[in-house]
Design goal:
With 355 residues, the protein is mainly alpha-helical. 63% of the residues lie in helices and 6% in strands. The mean pLDDT is 94. Bound molecules: cobalamin.
Length: 355
């Protein structure tokens, strides 16, 4: 029996060996691209290829080829930024399909190659991703000013920009969704295009977290509604700004929130759910290769007594690519941003989602 999910799991488990073989094949085929990188470059290619396979495996495990398509689109923009020849990634996908055909049964390989071919479609077109500072954003100028201050290393100017607006009555919700979220996404895009350094991206994120803390006097002021929520990111996940925003939006809607931040071990989540008995558990995952951890966490929470009563929301980057994914992974639902997370959460808890 070869289901897509089983084949994905097989590829995920065997990705180290498959990656070695794929790189061997590709180095033989495209020596002009690869030989200048030497043995150290070859080791790095094996690691990168194992990463490609991890994304393929998770996309197959979730049964959604859009996840692999989006990853190939992302990798392509990254490779363009690094000025790697245009056919590099196409060559990797060809060798990947070939090695998978050599290694798996025809039936399983057909399933995997369908996903790979879907990914290949992301290599058509320009590959340049557009700015996150959109014209329809009412605070576009503030967002641009905020990021440009941070990229110059001036977090005080960035903080002042935001605090001035909040003092004049712009809501923290608007600052979060129209300034901080697009600015963080834009810095990611610029990093991917090789236009800002890893250090600059770290600085922007650290400064942003500091600035978010300065907004707490406006966040904690709302009337309580007698609902509890716990917010966390899955084990291994280092992205925490999004789930912190989600927790803050619930706080602003009057919920009592318990925010655990990034990289929380599943046992810790299970025990805090038992202790706090929340109405809702919000789980965040950004990296596609953490999707199976999200599914595992949800299962563990549901298997425990207190977890049966909590509604579970799942969100983050991959869930904005594939909207059915939260339910597929066992959650009660998802939402693409912090404002909608509250709307969905309130509805679910009010209605008591049947399971
Ligand atoms: C800052 C950052 C980091 C920091 C995070 C530090 C921290 N303390 O948070 C560090 C340096 C650790 C990091 C590491 C990595 N990162 Co990073 N990172 C980012 C960046 C630039 C910003 C993240 C952020 O703050 N976003 C802003 C928030 C507000 O948006 P959000 O997370 O989407 O959250 C909103 C919604 O998704 C939703 N939501 C989120 N959670 C939940 C939960 C629920 C329940 C619900 C309902 C909704 C919901 O609501 C939120 C608010 O509206 C993004 C770019 C991006 N597009 O986001 C890249 C990005 C996510 N990272 C990326 C990568 C590749 C990595 C690394 C693999 C890099 C590396 N080679 O090491 C590692 C992986 C680390 C790991 N194991 O987790 C890629 C992912 C690409 C992909 N195809 O998967 C991105 C997109 C950058 C890029 N453009 O290439 N990163």
């Amino acid at each position: 029996l070869n289901t897509t999910a089983q084949t994905g799991n097989l590829i995920g488990r065997d990705r180290g060996r498959l990656a070695e073989r794929i790189v061997e094949l590709q180095y033989g085929r495209q020596p002009a691209i690869w030989s200048p990188f030497g043995p150290a470059g070859k080791q790095k290619s094996v690691r990168d290829t194992a990463d490609h396979l991890a994304y393929l495996a998770e996309a197959m495990a979730a049964g959604d080829s859009a996840l692999f398509y989006s990853y190939v689109a992302w990798a392509r923009a990254l490779f363009d930024g690094l000025k790697l020849p245009a056919d590099t990634l196409a060559g990797t996908l060809d060798c990947m399909a070939e090695v998978i055909r050599e290694s798996l049964t025809t039936e399983a390989a057909d399933l995997a190659v369908t996903f790979i071919d879907n990914g290949r479609a992301a290599l058509v077109g320009t590959g340049v991703s557009a700015t996150f500072f959109l014209d329809g954003n009412p605070l576009k100028d503030v967002a641009q000013g905020y990021l440009s201050a941070l990229l110059k290393g001036d977090r005080h100017a960035a903080a002042r920009l935001v605090l001035d607006r909040v003092e004049k009555g712009i809501s923290v919700r608007d600052i979060y969704l129209n300034v901080i979220e697009p600015s963080q996404r834009e810095v990611g895009r610029l990093w991917q295009a090789n236009q800002v350094s890893v250090a600059q991206e770290h600085y922007c994120t650290a400064a942003t977290q500091l600035i978010m803390s300065q907004l707490y006097p406006w966040i904690a002021a709302s009337e309580r509604v007698g609902r509890r929520m716990v917010a966390t990111a899955v084990g291994g996940e280092l992205h925490e700004v999004g789930i912190r925003m989600v927790a803050d939006f619930f706080e602003m809607a009057g919920w009592d929130t318990y925010y655990l931040g990034a990289n929380t071990p599943p046992e810790a989540v299970v025990s805090i759910v038992a202790e706090r008995k929340p109405d809702l558990l919000a789980v965040s995952a950004t990296m596609i290769f953490h999707l199976s951890r999200a599914a595992d966490l949800i299962k563990r929470v549901r298997d425990a007594e207190a977890g049966k009563k909590a509604c579970i929301l799942l969100g983050g980057y991959p869930f904005n690519i594939s909207l059915d994914l939260p339910r597929q992974l066992g959650a009660d639902g998802g939402a693409p941003d912090a404002a909608l997370a509250v709307a969905v959460g309130q509805k679910m808890v009010g209605a008591g989602v049947p399971r």
